[in-house]
Design a protein that fits this description.
Layout lengths: L12 H21 L10 H10 L2 H35 L3 H6 L10 H20 L7 H33 L14 H19 L3 H36 L12 H23 L5 H29 L1 H6 L12 H20 L9 H28 L14
Helix pairs in contact: 1-3, 1-5, 1-12, 1-13, 2-3, 3-5, 5-6, 5-7, 6-7, 6-8, 7-8, 7-9, 8-9, 9-10, 9-12, 10-12, 12-13
C-alpha cells in the first residue's frame, strides 16, 4: 500500500505508538523481575551484573529482551519521523481541511498521544543502556515534566479548537459517531498524566514531587470528565446506529485508558507516600488493580466477540481491506500486558499473596506473555500489509 500526503490519516501515528508501547512492555521484564531496592526503576547498574557474570540462561534471556527494546525503540523513532514529515505535507491538502470539519478531527489527538509515548521510550532507553545516568536523574525530572506538560498543552490546543468548532457550528455527526474513536482524546490526556506522575512518584525533592503530581491530577481530571461525556455519547450512537465495522477496534480503547489511569493512581500513591508521608494502602492497591483488570477483561471479551462476528480480523488483518485505525488493535494488547505486570507486582506480590518469581508468579505471567506475543504479531502483520518493504533499512521514504 502506498501512503502519500493525499491518502494520509493521522491515525498512522498509532503505528509508532504501538511500537513504542511494545518497547515499554519488554522493559517490564527487567523492571519487575530484577531486584532494584536502591532505585524506583531498574537501571544499567542492576542489569549489567546479570549480563556479565550471572546465570547464562538469565543473561541470554536478558540480552534478547534488551535487543527487543532497542529494535522496537528504533522502529518507533523511524515511524515517528515518517509520520511527522508526512503529516506536515498533509496539512496543505484538501483532505486536511475536510478532516478539520468532521468528527475525524479528533484523530489529531494521536499526535500528542504518540509524542508522550516517545518521551517514555527515551527515558527507558536512558535508564537501561546508559551507565550512571540515574545519578543525574533529579536533574532530568524537571525536563521530563516540562516535556510532558508541553505535549499536554498541545493536546489541549487541538481539543480546544475541536470543541470550539463544535460549540459554534453544532455539526457533530452522531450517525458517524457509532464507535469509541472519540475516546482517543482521553487516551492522549491520560498518557500525559501518567508521564507527569512518574517524576511525582520518584523525585526526592518535594517541589518536583508536588509539581509532577499536581500537573498529573490536572490532566487526569480533564480526561475523566471528558471520558464521562464521550463514553456515553459513543455508546448511545452505537446502540442507535450499530457499530461501525471499520472503527470496531475502538471498543478496545478502554483497555489502554484504564491501564494509564491505574498506573497514574499507583504512582500518585507512592509519590504521596514518600513525598508527603501519606501511609501506603497496599491492600487498596490490590482492590484497585483487580477492579481495573476485571473491566479490561470484560471490554476485551466484548470487543473480540463483536469484531469476530463482524469479520474484522478476517478482512482487515488477514484480508484485502486496509485502515489506519487497524493499528488500534496493538495498543490494547500492550496495555493489558503492562497492567497485568502491575497487577502481579502491586496487587499480588507486594500484598504477600504470591511469592516474587515463584510458581504462582509465572502462572499469572503466562497468559500475559501470550497477549504480548499476539500484539507483536499483529503489529508486524499490519506493518507488512500497510507499509510493505518500506520498513526495511533505507525504507519509509519521506516522499512516498
Amino acid at each position: 500500500m502506498k501512503t502519500s500526503e493525499h491518502t494520509y490519516n493521522p491515525l498512522y501515528f498509532l503505528a509508532a505508538l504501538g511500537v513504542g508501547g511494545l518497547a515499554v512492555s519488554f522493559f517490564m521484564y527487567p523492571m519487575y523481575m530484577i531486584e532494584h531496592p536502591d532505585t524506583p526503576m531498574v537501571t544499567f547498574a542492576h542489569i549489567w551484573p546479570l549480563l556479565s557474570g550471572g546465570d547464562p540462561v538469565t543473561a541470554a534471556l536478558l540480552r534478547l529482551d534488551l535487543l527487543a527494546i532497542a529494535v522496537l525503540a528504533l522502529l518507533h523513532i523511524r515511524l515517528l519521523v515518517w509520520n511527522i514529515n508526512t503529516y506536515r505535507r498533509f496539512r496543505h491538502t484538501d483532505a486536511f481541511k475536510q478532516l478539520k470539519s468532521s468528527n475525524a478531527e479528533v484523530s489529531l489527538m494521536a499526535i500528542p498521544l504518540t509524542l508522550a509515548m516517545s518521551i517514555n521510550v527515551m527515558f527507558i532507553l536512558g535508564a537501561v543502556f546508559i551507565p550512571g545516568l540515574w545519578n543525574y536523574v533529579e536533574y532530568l525530572f524537571p525536563f521530563a515534566i516540562a516535556a510532558f506538560f508541553a505535549v499536554g498543552m498541545y493536546a489541549l490546543k487541538i481539543l480546544g479548537e475541536y470543541f470550539a468548532r463544535l460549540f459554534i457550528s453544532g455539526d457533530f455527526d452522531f450517525v458517524e459517531n457509532n464507535n469509541l474513536t472519540q475516546m482517543l482524546a482521553i487516551f492522549a490526556l491520560v498518557m500525559v498524566a501518567v508521564g507527569l506522575a512518574a517524576p511525582g512518584a520518584m523525585s526526592h525533592y518535594p517541589v518536583v514531587n508536588a509539581i509532577g503530581i499536581g500537573l498529573s491530577v490536572f490532566f487526569l481530571s480533564i480526561a475523566i470528565l471528558l471520558a464521562l461525556v464521550k463514553f456515553v455519547i459513543g455508546f448511545q450512537s452505537i446502540l442507535h446506529h450499530g457499530l461501525s465495522e471499520a472503527a470496531s477496534p475502538s471498543l478496545w480503547i478502554v483497555i489502554p485508558i484504564l491501564t494509564l489511569i491505574g498506573i497514574t493512581l499507583i504512582r500518585m500513591s507512592y509519590g504521596l507516600h514518600h513525598g508527603f508521608d501519606q501511609p501506603l494502602n497496599t491492600p487498596g492497591l490490590f482492590v484497585l488493580t483487580t477492579a481495573i483488570l476485571s473491566i479490561q477483561l470484560v471490554f476485551g471479551l466484548i470487543g473480540y466477540l463483536v469484531m469476530k462476528r463482524l469479520g474484522y480480523f478476517r478482512d482487515y488483518l488477514h484480508g484485502d481491506k486496509s485502515n489506519a485505525g487497524s493499528y488500534s488493535l496493538v495498543c490494547p494488547g500492550v496495555a493489558f500486558f503492562v497492567f497485568g505486570m502491575f497487577f502481579i507486582t502491586f496487587g499480588l506480590v507486594k500484598t504477600g499473596l504470591i511469592e516474587h518469581l515463584g510458581m504462582a508468579y509465572f502462572v499469572f505471567l503466562t497468559p500475559l506473555i501470550y497477549v504480548q506475543v499476539k500484539a507483536v504479531g499483529t503489529l508486524f502483520v499490519l506493518n507488512r500489509r500497510i507499509f510493505g518493504n518500506r520498513l526495511t533499512p533505507g525504507g519509509l521514504c519521506m516522499h512516498c
